[in-house]
Hints:
- The protein has helices spanning 2-17, 20-26, 52-75, 79-96.
- It is mainly alpha-helical.
- Residues 30-54 are annotated as: Disordered.
Amino acid sequence: MSMQVAALFSDLKSLTICSHEAALALVTPRAGEDGVNSSTDPSQSVHKGPADSDLQKAQELVSLHHDIKVRISESGLDPELLEYRRRVHQVLADLDA
C-alpha cells in the first residue's frame, strides 16, 4: 500500500513539471492501439478494454490538476488553505520548541 501511495505522489509531482498537453498525452491511447482514436480530448476517446476506467480516471486527474493550477495562477491560493498552512507551521514550530 505504501508503495502505491509513493507512486501516486510521484505521478502527481510529475504533473507539476510538464505541460497539460504532455500530461494528457501520457494517459491518452494512440490510434491503432486496441481500436482507440488518437484524440487528446478525453471526451472523444473511444475505449475498449478493462483499463478504460483507469485511463478515464487518469485523464480526469490530469484535467483537474490543470484546472486547479490555472485557477491558482489567476487568483492565488484560497485564504482558508493559507490559514490551515499557517496553523500547521505553528504546530510544527511548537513541537520543535
